[in-house]
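Intended use. Records like the one below are meant for learning the mapping from a protein sequence to its folded structure. Do not use them to infer anything beyond what is encoded.
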Amino acid sequence: MPALWTGSDKLLLASTSATRLALLASAGLSVETQASDIDERAIEEAARSEGLDPPALAARLSAEKALSVSRRQPERVVLGADQVLACGSIVFHKAPDREAARRQLLALSGTSHTLHSAFALAIAGTVVESFVATATLTMRPLTDESIDLYLNLAGPAVLQSVGVYHFEGLGVHLFEAVEGDHSTILGLPLLPLLSALRRLGCLSL
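Structure written out for the chain above:
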């Protein structure tokens, strides 16, 4: 049976994200995972002092993740990915608890925000491919009651999402309009990634 992936080793994802792993698996890619050891908040602070905008921040974070693992595994093709949610001038992070998630949904209610999803491919400690894609999501106005109902239905899983919603699941009920690719919303621009892997000679199709 012909193989899609032409590398001697599987693609190495510098993350333990189940959503990104599922996206890659859905495209038929053979993937292993290894968590990066970067300090994301420290990198974000440095990026802010440099005046980087949210798309550039997403690119920086994805590159640092890829490089962190690539330095340990220089012979592998390493994929780093990250996503930054911005609403106006405010950058949101994963909520630490339910009350913080509730406040974040209140802040996003009735507004449009952007998701900047980036990836970087690294080999031997050097980034060889990178890309940033942006999606715009408009959340419908939410009442206190609807927010509480959503949080009750979705459970603790919302704390694993930067927007405290899982768009691929119950979170889709929170929105009235979306502009952008579905994989970008999920945190990994899949079509640009596949194009990059073809340029590197990693795919047979």
